[in-house]
Amino acid sequence: MYMTVATGVTRTPVARSRRRVQVVVGLVLLGALAVSVLLSLAFGSRPIPFREVLDAVFTDLDSDNATVIESQRVPRTLLGLAAGVALGMAGALMQGHTRNPLADPGLFGVNAGASFGVAVLVFTLDVTTPAALTAAALIGAGVVTTLVFVLGLGGRQGGGLVMLAVVGTTLGALLAAFTTALVLLDRQTLDVMRFWEVGALSNRDLSLVPIMLPLVVLGLLLAVMNAFTLDALSLGDDVAESLGTDVRTSRVTGIVAISLLAGTATAVCGPIGFVGLVAPHLARALSGHDYRWLVPFSGLAGGALLLLADTAGRLVARPGELQAGIVLAVVGAPVLLGLTRRRRLVSL
Q1: Which residues touch 195 (CB under 8 Å, ≥6 apart)?
Q2: CA–CA separation, 344 vs 322, rounded Å?
Q3: Which helix (H) or strand (E) covers residue 11, if one does?
């Protein structure tokens, strides 16, 4: 809380205490993210000692292990870090705008839109280049995100929020059916989709990372800006407007940020579910409901979660590996079931 006095605005002891807690939570999440990055660099088909990992990253170490780290594990870790942060923040934005604790890029049809975009491109134009597939997935995710928000939030009362969940689920199911039809009709589409639809950090075109990062950074900046309006929006559009919030601008900014974050991550890595669901709830349990902190904390939690899932997949199926999307499904499905049983989370 803040208290206005004659000389300006000062923070109460309660506000200062809360700020200290948020700083501690941020440091803890940053530490967890750093540990997950180190584990991602150290473990794979063969483990590499932590000391050698640090030497390879921060010095000019010349060895076979250093070559493996620099050429393979560092790009993969950067990809997982960017995708995890993007999906975590996208999930927090979706939950904030919809006031729905189950909101997630996967559950609200964004992944289905990206998959449909890729399938349509391959089926109609026989184009299979990584850059083109990424663009098609990004466009598909953006179109679905826009449709879900426009149709679902057409009403300005609580019913609009209920409709949003219905529209998202319906669009996701419809596009998944269309994608399946295209896959069954064309063998080349099947060959492309069966590899792309497995959400993973392995076997991805790492040359797309330089293209991905600017889009993710832009999405992160918009997400942080948008976070400052979400607490007002959680009170309802009418109340938010009375407090001086431009509701339409906030909604549009949220749509663009979610499209960039979730769409880019899905376009490059394939559909990876549950990061956008689990990460915000983990951050909320640690930091509370203040979206100014919750959105960036969800990004940190999402990055750590995806990297840990990817590392676990390399360890449990050695010398092969289990895709990160499968590992996250094993973790995320029980979380989803648990959330649906908590009545107090019907609305945020």
Answers
A1: 203
A2: 35
A3: strand 8-11
Task: Kindly report the pTM of this predicted structure.
Answer: 0.86
What angle separates helix 291-316 from helix 13-42, to the nearest 10 degrees? 20
Distances in Å between the Cα of 61 and the Cα atoms of 49, 79, 251 are: 13, 23, 49
Q: Where are the domains of the chain?
A: 25-57+80-340
Q: Which residues contact 290 (CB under 8 A, 6 or more apart)?
A: 22, 231
| Cα 89 to Cα 227: distance, rounded to the nearest angstrom | 10
pLDDT on residue 154: 60
| CATH T-level fold of 25-57+80-340 | ABC transporter involved in vitamin B12 uptake, BtuC (1.10.3470)
Give pLDDT, residue 81: 93
Classify residue 295 by burial, with Cβ atoms within 10 Å: 0-12, 13-18, 19+: buried
Dihedral class, residue 9 (left if φ above 0, else alpha if ψ from -120 to 50, else beta): beta
Q: Which residues of the chain have pLDDT under 70?
A: 1-11, 107, 152-162, 165, 339-348
Q: How would you label 307-339 residue by residue, b for 16+ Cβ within 10 Å and e otherwise? A: bbbbbbbbeeeeeebbbbbbbbbeebeeebeee
Chain centre to alpha carbon of residue 84: 5
Neighbours of 186 (CB within 10 A): 17
**Helix, strand or coil, per DSSP, at residue 10:** strand
Rounded-to-integer distance, Cα 283 and Cα 296, Å: 9
